[in-house]
Design brief:
Blueprint (H helix, E strand, L loop, with lengths): L2 H24 L7 H12 L13 H18 L8 H26 L6 H7 L5 H10 L5 H25 L5 H19 L1 H4 L3 H10 L6 H19 L4 H18 L4 H26 L3 H6 L1 H16 L1 H5 L6 H11 L4 H12 L5 H28 L13 H7 L5 H7 L1
């Protein structure tokens, strides 16, 4: 890579990232998610439109951005949630999506429409929790019980596809792949014990004194953790997002075992992730969109977009029928059908094995981009269209308080009791 050209490309990407918040603020009508502007900006400066930048020159920074996206998703994920009702329903919903995906890809393959069954079928079952978090957080959609169901559904839509990618799509034998996953998982568990091993008072004092000074010891430690697990996952032939997700989960354990300022640390993650690396990933994703290939067969893109909604989204209407009201079930339909990062990874795998058709690859990526552009906006619009109840935001009314505020059913009996 030419260093000078790489810097020029980075300037173009940084300019898009810096202008995106201004564009969002100046656009009339409902607020557009910043991710949408970053993707469209990437399309504009990419090789298929203006040709101002190439994805190959910023690939490393883009991968770090992808890692940060999944690190923050893993940090938000509480493993205990998967053992509770939101987690159980999320797992059932993902299994239903997997069964539907098998039927859909079998039909498309029999019709000669696709050739690479596993990556395409798996792509239809993914959910972009990391991509959704900033959008949903900005619109106050992660509070209360609904937020727990969103986290669980997103975790299932990321964790299970990541594990399947690591085991079956790495080009290694299944036993070796399983052993690799187990080793990376064991390493993550070992790393989670570091706060306990370094519980000496002197070490804790150094951490507390250095976490907000120029040393920034906690942030640097988190970056080392992310890079270590990314490098190890890549070395074992696993998808790097597995390492990033595990890094986030380990980091969550660190934050709760150590005497560190959790709120301050989270603000630092947001500043470094959303301020620097994550925008680079989204702009790079937009740059990779082949508009010419999509224009030659636009129907293929629309079919995959519809399949994302059918395969991954529609099971939410059934799975959450007793847990959520109708409006929130429809919101979950569009939230779970939103995908991009894992879809891009699966398209890369399909292209590397030489089976996936170029038109299919372009249409899948385009469908993922459109899902990020359209589906969250629909979910946010539905969320804003009806007032939330106190239970939606996690406010519960105790029976005592309810009884105190309610008028007596029998005033005469009440006066006799006085």
């Amino acid at each position: 890579m030419d260093l000078n050209q790489g810097l020029v490309d980075l300037v173009a990407v940084a300019l898009v990232a810096a202008l995106a918040p201004l564009v969002v603020a100046l656009l009339p009508g409902p607020r557009v998610p910043q991710v949408v502007i970053l993707l469209l900006g990437g399309v504009l400066i990419g090789p298929h439109v203006l040709g101002l930048a190439e994805t190959s020159n910023i690939q490393l920074l883009s991968n770090i951005g992808l890692g940060f996206l999944f690190l923050l998703a893993g940090y938000e994920l509480d493993p205990a949630l998967l053992r509770q009702q939101p987690g159980r329903l999320a797992i059932v919903g993902w299994l239903i999506s997997a069964v539907i995906a098998i039927g859909v890809t079998s039909g498309l393959g029999a019709a000669g429409y696709i050739r690479d069954y596993v990556p395409i079928g798996l792509a239809l079952t993914t959910t972009a929790l990391g991509t959704l978090l900033p959008i949903l957080r900005d619109n106050d959609m992660l509070g209360g019980s609904f937020g727990q169901y969103v986290y669980a559904a997103g975790a299932a839509g990321e964790l299970f596809p990541i594990l399947i990618i690591a085991v079956f799509l790495t080009g290694r034998g299944n036993f070796i792949a399983l052993a690799s996953v187990a080793l990376v998982g064991a390493l993550a568990v070992a790393l989670s014990a570091i706060p306990w091993l370094t519980g000496h008072r002197a070490v804790q004092r150094i951490v507390q004194e250095g976490q907000d000074e120029t040393a920034q010891i906690t942030l640097r430690g988190a970056m080392v953790l992310l890079f270590v697990l990314l490098a190890i996952a890549s070395r074992f032939g696993l998808d790097v997002v597995l390492g990033a997700l595990l890094a986030g989960m380990v980091l969550r354990g660190w934050a709760r075992q150590s005497n560190m300022d959790i709120t301050g640390l989270e603000h630092k993650f947001d500043a470094v992730g959303y301020g620097i690396f994550i925008p680079i990933f989204f702009v790079s994703s937009g740059m990779s969109l082949d508009l010419k290939a999509i224009g030659q067969d636009p129907l293929r893109l629309l079919i995959f977009l519809a399949l994302l909604l059918i395969v991954r989204g529609l099971p939410s209407l059934l799975v959450y029928r007793r847990a959520l009201p109708a409006r929130q079930r429809v919101e979950m339909t569009f939230i779970t059908a939103t995908t991009l990062p894992l879809l891009i990874a699966l398209v890369d795998i399909g292209q590397q094995d030489g089976v996936m058709l170029p038109a299919t690859a372009a249409a899948l990526v385009g469908a993922g981009v459109l899902s990020v552009l359209v589906f969250p906006l629909i979910a946010v619009s539905l969320h804003r269209s009806a007032p939330l109840t106190p239970a939606d935001v996690g406010i519960t009314t105790s029976p005592t308080a309810a009884g105190a505020s309610a008028p007596p059913e029998n005033p005469a009996e009440d006066s006799q009791n006085l």
